[in-house]
Structures are given as structure tokens and as C-alpha cells.
Amino acid sequence: MAGRRAEQHPHGADRLCEAGDRVYERAVRRGRVPRVEAEAAPCLLELALLHPDPDDMDWLVPTSPQEVMTRLLRGVYDEVSESQRRVGSAVAAFEWYAGLGQSQALAAPGGGSAVRVLDGLSRIQAAMDEATQACTTEVLTVQPGGIRREAELTEGLHRALALRGRGVRMRDLYTHVARHGQGLLNYLELMGDTVEARTLDEVIDRLILFDRTVAFIPANADRTMALELRHPALVEYLVTVFERLWRLAIPLTAPLPDTGIEGISHREQSIAALLAEGHQDAVIAERLGISVRTCRAHIARLSETLGAASRTQLGVRIAQAGLDGSGRGLPAARDASL
User: Fold this and answer.
1) Angle at 298 between CA 296 and CA 303, to 5 degrees
2) Dihedral, CA atoms, 54, 55, 59, 61, nearest 10 degrees?
3) Which of 52, 61, 82, 131 is the most exposed place for a label (fewest CB within 10 A)?
4) pTM higher than the cut 0.90
């Protein structure tokens, strides 16, 4: 029976069926619904959006929308974090294999090197120019680091304009912080509908993919070395990572979702989750693409909003408000006196 119900309602809490949408909305509006009314939407019980009223088992009460939203956001965050971890492991493996290149070359199926180390900015730019000239269909990029500097945008502008001239489509992923950079907005206005941009709280390290056949990733922290990847399996793996991040990202033209927690912004919610994981200020700032000073200013506002007098107390308040992603806290985080 449970298997048949799952087949009829193959969805999660992020995309309710018509019956589930209608019954859950009625339950939230009224405070509860008769169990018989929910028979058309068994998914609501399976997804824990409705649960029995302990005072009367013939009635069902709804899980609060704020708690459902926190649960969904946590799921998105976990998926992004897992993708970042996997890409980090893959990059480390690529570097190790590249180091063995002098003793045994890793060859691409069509000949040539599948992993090539590019040492120095001039070699990196020359390889990128070569890939740009050969590109005919699409370019996928991940650009971490927050607000893009004018120098970074200018350095690659000639390649972007050349691609636009040939009708190549481009999709770019940035952090949410990049939305505040006027240089990026000017660049996107110049490129028109050739470029589609989306943003996330966090993205992986820099990645550029041309026609799903060649990829470029950093090979050291200051990006003076890069890896050029042409092995189909490696490139396809990176394409899959990009597409999953793209699906989770928010279009640059759309506003960021409201947190549903009064006085706490979307960025502060992300900072709270990272604080709950035990990360230091500098690590949080780097992952979100903001300065340490800005990060600490947000933490101060979090402390004030949640009524925390110390970092230890802030951790407790974050857990109470459900900002650690547990979904067990106060639905609206308004009572900071607990």
C-alpha cells in the first residue's frame, strides 16, 4: 500500500501535488484538518507535513511552514556542501595524478594529454584563448570570491565578447555576494541574453568548461597554476557537479528568498549555520565571499537579534531558533528571552 501511495505522489516537500497543496494550505489556515480530508494526499503524512493531533486522533495538525522551510533550506545546504567536498577531493586527486605525469602520461582517448599542468598566468591565458577559439556551443563557469574585481572582469572580457559574437551560450555561477558588484552588473548588461547568471550561498572553486570537452580548474591557492582537463570521464563529472549546483542556484534577476525569521537576513542565516558547524570567522568569510570584517558585523547583528551576550550563548540561541539546520528550534525565532 505504501509503495502504491509513493508512486502516486512522487515528490518532496518542495513541490507538493495539487491535492497536497490544497489540504496543507487548509490545515495551516484552520490549525488542523479531519483525517478523512487528508486521505487524498497521503504524501503529507509521509513527508511529515501533517501529523496526528495528540488530543484527537481523528484530526491532523500541520507542521509550521517556517519549520518546513528550514528543513528544505538545510537539505539544499547539505547537497551543496557534499558537492563541494567531492569536487575538492577530485581536485586533490587530479593534482596527484598530474604529478605522476613525467613518469606515465595520462592520455585522453583521442590522443594528447588528459591532464595538463599550466604553470604561470601567461600559459593559462594562452590555453584559455585556445579553448575559446575552438568553442562553438556553450561555456559553463563557477566564479567564487564574492564581488568580482574590475581587473578580473576585464581580463576575460575579450574572450566573452568573442564567444558572444559566435552565438555561444554562457552560464555563470556566483555567490550571492556578487549581486552587489556593479562591475558584474555592467558586464551582464553588456553581454545581454548571451549570459545567464545564478547565485548560491557558497560555490566550489573556480571552474570553466568549454563545450563539455575541456575544463580548467586551479592547481594552487593563488591561481598561478591551473589544470587543463580533457579526459571525458573527468570533464563529465565536473559538468554533473555544475548542473546540480545550477539547479539549486537562484537566478540573478530573482530576489533571494526570505528567511521567514524576523530580523535575520538570508546571509546571516548562512553565517549562523556555519557558526553552528564550528567554523571560525575567517573560514566563514572565505566560503561566503565576504570580508572578515563584514562577517563579524553580521555575527554582531545575529547576537543582537537573538539576544546573545557571548559567542557561547549565540550558539545556544542559534540552535533554539533552528538556524543550525536542525529544524527543531523556534519557528520564527522571535522569542530571544528563552
Assistant:
1) 95
2) -60
3) 82
4) no
